[in-house]
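Protocol step 4 of 5: obtain the predicted structure for the target chain.
Materials: sequence only (see below). No template structures provided, no constraints applied. The aim of this step is simply to have a reference model before the mutagenesis design in step 5. Sequence pasted as it appears in the construct record:
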Amino acid sequence: MSFLGGLFGPVCEIDVILNDAETRKMAELKTEEGKMEKHFLF
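Step 4 output (structure tokens):
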């Protein structure tokens, strides 16, 4: 948890929904832990 998150209460979550998410190209990226994640290309 970040320093400021502990001072001001729980951290909020924000969801971003793209209009063209179904057709937008994606790329697979490897995380520092070695897992693969898909991310939108811009």
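Step 4 remarks: The helical segments are 3-7. The longest strand covers residues 26-30.
Proceed to step 5.
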